[in-house]
Design a protein that fits this description.
This protein is of the alpha+beta class. Helix content is 18%, strand content 33%. It is built from 8 helices and 25 strands. The strands form 5 sheets. Strands 7, 8, 9, 11, 12, 13, 15 and 16 form an 8-stranded antiparallel beta sheet that branches. A hairpin with a 6-residue loop joins strand 24 and strand 25.
Length: 446
């Protein structure tokens, strides 16, 4: 039987890659995904037969591989991607979770969803059009969400005669832009998703290109999922008090470890109260264990009876995060209604939801030249900007640069529960603006 120590030692030896595709309308995202699935033998026979039948009914000579991902009826009818389509496939070298995200500007919010947990983003560009505003927007979102690897797939090379100069110009422009955003690793690959050039198999039409195909890059890019390297964070989801004859005094705190490692006997602090205790026991899958790590779901038992409820955060006392009621962050605005200074919102951070006020919007990012438009007053759909939010209760936020899980949050409309914005706490590629918080005239001055 494998010991707990051995299991922990093997934790980082994963073969899973999460990646997202993005690009403008008709750049060929769904066709690329379909080509990946088809050429890597990841399509079931009945799925392929259905695609062939639909393609023939439309009068197309060859199967439209984009139909393998465009699952909604509106997507198939309009030939566009509306929702994020998740696909799971595997090769002999790695397993994949793929998020095919929309290209329309009004669906950029969906790209935020698809890329928020991605290790890699594939940004497609039509070789005929080059880098356009939506390309820059997707690069900015990838940088903002700290996606560690970005692949520029210059698609439709067959329509520009497979010219190396066309590819080189686009790759140079995109790489310079993404580098200015702080994207740490950028790879450019010339492809034709429709013809299959450099997607799974190397292209015979571009012998000037000596790099990997898209699939080869996906299979070999170094990816680390070692959440245990970060300080331990345990958001409480549920308090378990059975009060039964068998367990009359049991009090456990259930949830998923967001990061790090927790051990029995470790001194911990409960936030935002600041109360301290030690871990008396850890229950996982019905058994008591001495150690647990992210992303396991466990129940913690503490040595002391402390007032703890859903939304509290348990962390090692040695490196517990600071609490704050003044949240400075970069947000992607995803709602149709604008986000304005003075707006009353709910902020959801891990399992905790509190009231808040948008005290200031210091700047909005201009995608063309990465300049900051100062004090825009509001953010509209798909805008990226800096905000200062004052919360009614303290939050234990990490910087997003340190933890994508405990450094992120949502702004929610308290009236109807609509998600307004996705936020990343702390610094980003946007420069930090000096802010002055003024008291609210209507009593929401926390």
């Amino acid at each position: 039987m494998t010991s707990t120590t051995e299991q922990f030692a093997d934790l980082s030896a994963t073969t899973l890659l999460r990646f997202a595709t993005a690009g403008s309308v008709d750049d060929g995202k769904s066709t690329l995904v379909g080509r990946l699935l088809h050429d890597s033998k990841s399509v079931l026979t009945d799925q392929m037969e259905h695609v062939e039948a639909v393609s023939q009914a439309r009068g197309q000579e060859a199967p439209d591989l984009a139909l393998l991902t465009d699952g909604l009826r509106a997507e198939r009818e309009q030939g566009i991607t509306i929702d994020v389509a998740y696909r799971y496939f595997a090769t002999a070298r790695r397993r994949f979770i793929l998020a095919d995200t929309p290209g329309h500007v009004q669906y950029t919010r969906n790209m935020v969803t698809g890329a928020s947990t991605a290790d890699l983003a594939v940004v497609l560009v039509d070789a005929r059009n080059g880098v356009i505003e939506q390309t820059r927007r997707h690069a900015a979102v990838a940088a903002l969400l700290r996606v560690p690897h970005v692949v520029l797939a210059v698609n439709k090379m067959d329509l520009v005669g497979y010219e190396e100069s066309v590819f080189a110009k686009i790759a140079e422009e995109f790489t310079a832009y993404a580098s200015d955003l702080g994207v740490p690793e950028i790879s450019a690959i010339p492809i034709s998703a429709l013809a299959g050039d450099n997607v799974v198999d190397p292209s015979a039409n571009m012998d000037w290109y000596g790099g990997p195909t898209v699939l080869e890059h996906l299979e070999t890019v170094p990816v680390s999922h070692d959440l245990t390297a970060c300080p331990a964070r345990f958001p409480v989801q549920y308090v378990i008090r059975p009060q039964s004859a068998e367990h009359p005094d049991y009090r456990g705190y259930a949830g998923q470890i967001a990061s790090g490692v927790l051990r029995v006997g470790e001194a911990v602090t409960v936030l935002p109260s600041g109360r301290t205790s030690t871990i008396a026991g850890i229950d996982a899958l019905g058994e008591s264990v001495d150690i647990a790590w992210a992303p396991q779901s466990v129940t913690l038992r503490l040595a002391d009876d402390i007032d703890i409820s859903r939304g509290d955060l348990i962390a090692p006392s040695a490196n517990a995060p600071a609490t704050t009621q003044d949240v400075e962050a970069t947000v992607c605005h995803v709602a149709d209604q604008p986000l304005s200074v003075g707006a009353r919102v709910l902020i959801k951070h891990t399992t905790r939801t509190v009231k808040a006020i948008v005290k200031e919007i210091p700047s909005r990012l201009t995608l063309d030249d990465l300049s900051q438009h100062p004090n825009p007053g509001q953010l509209v759909a798909n805008d990226i900007g800096r905000v200062v939010v004052r919360t009614a209760e303290p939050l234990a936020l990490d910087a997003y640069a340190d933890s994508r899980r405990t450094g992120s949050f949502l702004l929610i409309d308290p009236a109807d529960g609509t998600t307004l914005a996705a936020g990343m706490a702390g610094e980003s590629f946007a420069s930090k603006a000096e802010t002055t918080i003024q008291a609210d005239e209507e009593g929401w001055d926390f």
